[in-house]
Amino acid sequence: MPRRILIIDDEDDIREVAALSLETVAGWDVTMAGSGAAGIVKALEQQPDAILLDVMMPVMDGPTTFRELHALPETTNIPVILLTAKVQAADQKRFSDLGVAAVMFKPFDPLTLAGEIAHALGWTDD
Amino acid sequence: MCCLVGAVVLARYGSSEDQANPWIFWFAALWTIAQTLLITVAISSFRSALRQGQAERQLERVARLHRSILDSAGPVMIACDLAGHISLFNPAAERMLGYRAAEVLGKLTAGDLFPESEMVRVGEQLAASMPAAKPQPDVPANTAEALLPYIRYVASFPASRVRGFEMRYRRRDGSTFPAMVYLSAVRSSAGSIDGLVSVAVDLSATRRAEYALRESEERYRDLFENSAEMIATLSPRGRYLYVNPAWQNLFGMDSPQFENLIGFESAFPPEVQAEAAALFHKALHGVRVERHPLRLQNSAGETVEVEASLSCRREETGPVSVRCTFRDVTQQNRRERRLRIQLVVSQIIGETTSMDEGLARVLEALCGTFSCEFAALWTVDEQQHLIRARVTWAARGRSSEDFTRETQTQVSARGEGLPGMVWSQGKPCWVPDLRQDPAFLRRGAARLNGFVSGWAVPVRVGNQVIAVIECFSRQLIREDPDLLATVETVCGSVGQFMARAGQEARLRQLDRQRAFILSSVADGIIGVDSSNRIAFVNPAAARLLEQPEAELIGREVHETLHPASVACGTSCATRRAFLAGEGASGQDAYMRESGRSFPVEFALMPMVEEGAPVGSVLSFRDISQRYALDHMKDEFISTVSHELRTPLTSIRGALGLLSAGMLGQVSDKASTLLRIAVSNSDRLVRLINDILDLERMQSGRAPLAFRSIQLEELARQAIEAMQPMADAGEVHLLCDAVPAHVEADGDRLQQVLTNLLSNAIKFSQPQSIVRVSITRSPDGVTLSVIDQGRGIPGDKLETIFDRFQQVDASDSRQKGGTGLGLAICRTIVHQHGGRIWAEQNGNQGSIFRVFLPDRASLSASGEEVAAGIS
């Protein structure tokens, strides 16, 4: 049974590349959402194994979305990895303080992304 | 009638002169009675007989009388005949001349009783004293030659008019004595002269008394004549009776000139005549004048000050004479005046702080001392080459308005007018008559206000004339060099005073400037005393803290900036700065009165006087705006980095997948191109990362997180991280490290090490060695990265640490570097208070060394460096 990953990002291109990377490199089952709200709906519906969550999104940004997911009993246990193009120390600190499983930076290497996620989440069998 | 007269005569005779002879008395009485009774009887028969008897008895009586007179008389009485033979020699003569009468009478002649030639000398004198016109009286032929002038002298005058004359007698022992000689003739019954009688009175005693008197007079006269005091005696009507030479000298007149004066005061100069007359009048009316001061010009034109004492000698009939004594006290007064004015001036300048007030008082003192009514001090303006009056002083009373106004408005060039002249010549100047002196520009005003004489003296500091003091009098004063010398001395003190006051004024001006600067700066400045209480607050500080300056004074500084409500704790930068007692700076947040805090950047500077701390100065700047700007910049960078990375993420991801062949096989050429695209998009990402890193660090917005680190451990981690890259380049990484403990930000230091290793590997040939070594020194740790690569030219050892400075411009393309790595390293090392530098490794390769000082030796300075970079 392949891992099911939900990618929430407002950038279509990045969603495509990331999905392609995870599907082709790791063979995971990837679903996508273009906004925080849509992401929460998908998460509730599909109960993915992990969520790759973009930080900078209009209307509902990554941290807000995370707090929503964390607040919902149905999704509170789904590990969330923040994917951010912000690399400033203050931001990093702020993000890790949220209680996410990991923070990963854009741009990512499509060949190693799946491995890094598996490593961060302790998925040793992947 | 006749008998009555006889009775009276006899009665008188008997009663007054001859009481011892009652017989004569009774005889006369009886005779008178008888005559009265027998008026007519036998008058004619007895008259002649009775008269005859009376005459005989009278003669007898007279002869006895003469004898007794001669015997008892004090004067010497000597008679001689015409031949000079002595016929009478009375006992007084015996006593005086030492002869006995028996030795003289009939044996000696008159000439024997006088010293040789004395008779001739006196004879000639007598002859000379006789009226020449008178016919020579007849002299008996048998007269001795020596007696001739005497006989003639006696014969020339009636007995009543013969004068006595002085003559010296010679005693038997040869000694002589002076005598006053009265000479009379002895006449025969026929009336012809047949001898001379001399009556002589010894003058020895008189002469001695006279001599003594004369000597005494001489002595007193000598005293008066040689006295330095001026002495005059005047009649009650004011005529000069006696003036001593000193008096004559004072007025430049001789005795006869004084005798011709009609009054005491006439000798005096016009300006003192009234005063002199008053003194004389006072003395004449019995008031003793004691040491009354008078000022007058002597005959040489010098001012003389005297003390006049006058007293009147009186007898019962009234005043007899007025004695007047002047004592010259000019020198004494000058000395006293010089001392007094110097004392007064030094007092004035010692107790005055305001220069103008002090100078006005000095002018007043000078006027008071030297009898002047107006004074001015002119100051030299060196820049404008002008001199102008700064302070004037005028005595009350008569108006000095015109002169004051003209003095205050006049501005003179060097050499112009009295002050200008004194300025240019640098020496005092005396103007005896201001009204006539063409060089004195204010003569019109002087005439209007009655000023007559004046003088001016330069005020110097060193050799430079900085001012001129002038004084004016309504009296004619002749030049007085001594006065000028005194004033010059005073001017020396005035010069020092002005210099000092000038310095004080400059200091006050500096103070005002400083106060102005302090009040106009935007930074808050707080002066704090040694007990950390606020002693000074500038307006900016008061404004920033939203409190009036006065309310801040005296408050504890830290409690003011961080009230109790702010729990600043031990990490409080401001508190630590104050506790350290050293200069410090940093950032903090201070509290306004309203309770809102604002970010500040502060600097604390201790004030040390003579090695002891006396307080400190805290300056702080509201950096709210800078914070806002920084925030905006952060936002911008954050956005830029996000916006740049987002497309890069897609590009890099897509290229990566394609290049890896995950989406199907691509041709070799396409694969090469894809690899180039991947590598360059990686480089672009690194470049963006490095730029952001550097910007963040240099802006101070990436503060270091110091903690205890084992440096050798850090080195091993770095080597481990770089091992894949080294393996790819076939470069051997070695670690040669001793255990070294440092206080540092591990992540940042890791970044430095990684960077240096990355560079070393990049520029090393395959199979060469890159070695990391760590050595300890007393004050820190040195980390070295040593390679055997192509090395660095000597002129590039420094510049390679600058941004985008590489040894070879093509390196960034060939080696994939960004050109920012070493700049980042240097920034990080500096943030640690350390140093980084490059050396050449012999003839092959290079060495990069990082020195990290022990934190203990850094303490505050590390923060300074950190703050300094921002």
Number of helices of chain A: 5
Shape annotation of chain A:
globular
Mean pLDDT of chain A: 89
Order of strands, main sheet of chain A, comes to 2-1-3-4-5
Specify which chain pair forms the largest interface.
A-B, 24 and 29 residues
What structural class should be given to the helix and strand makeup of chain B? alpha+beta
Give the helices and strands of chain A as they follow along the chain: EHEHEHEHEH
Helical region count of chain B? 29
CATH architecture of the domain at 1-8 and 25-45 and 63-115 in chain A: 3-Layer(aba) Sandwich
How would you describe this structure to a colleague?
The complex is a heterodimer of chains A (126) and B (870). Chain A is an alpha/beta fold and 126 residues long. Chain A has helices at residues 12-26, 36-46, 62-71, 89-97, 113-121; strands at 4-8, 29-33, 50-54, 80-84, 102-105. In chain A, helix 2 (36-46) runs parallel beside helix 3 (62-71). Chain B has a six-stranded antiparallel sheet. Chain B has a five-stranded antiparallel sheet with strand order 2-1-5-4-3. In chain B, strands 7-6-10-9-8 form a five-stranded antiparallel sheet, with helices on both faces. The N and C termini of chain B lie far apart (165 Å). Classes of the chains: A alpha/beta (126), B alpha+beta (870). Chain A binds chain B through residues 11, 13-14, 16-18, 20-21, 24-25, 56, 85-91, 106-111, and chain B through 634, 637-638, 641-654, 656-657, 660, 662-663, 681, 685, 689, 692, 696, 701-702.
Topology of helices and strands:
The complex is a heterodimer of chains A (126) and B (870).
Chain A: E1 4-8, H1 12-26, E2 29-33, H2 36-46, E3 50-54, H3 62-71, E4 80-84, H4 89-97, E5 102-105, H5 113-121
Parallel strand pairs in A: 1-2, 1-3, 3-4, 4-5
Helix pairs in contact in A: 2-3
Chain B: H1 2-17, H2 22-37, H3 43-72, E1 76-81, E2 86-89, H4 91-97, H5 101-104, H6 118-129, H7 148-156, E3 165-170, E4 176-187, E5 193-202, H8 204-226, E6 230-234, E7 240-243, H9 245-251, H10 255-259, H11 270-284, E8 289-297, E9 303-315, E10 318-328, H12 330-351, H13 355-370, E11 374-381, E12 386-394, H14 401-409, E13 411-413, H15 417-425, E14 429-431, H16 443-449, E15 453-461, E16 464-473, H17 481-520, E17 524-529, E18 534-537, H18 539-545, H19 549-552, H20 557-561, H21 573-580, E19 584-591, E20 597-609, E21 612-622, H22 624-659, H23 668-698, E22 707-710, H24 711-729, E23 732-737, E24 741-744, H25 746-762, E25 769-777, E26 780-786, H26 811-815, H27 821-831, E27 835-840, E28 846-853, H28 855-858, H29 860-869
Parallel strand pairs in B: 23-25
Antiparallel strand pairs in B: 1-2, 1-5, 3-4, 4-5, 6-7, 6-10, 8-9, 9-10, 11-12, 11-16, 12-13, 14-15, 15-16, 17-18, 17-21, 19-20, 20-21, 22-24, 25-26, 26-28, 27-28
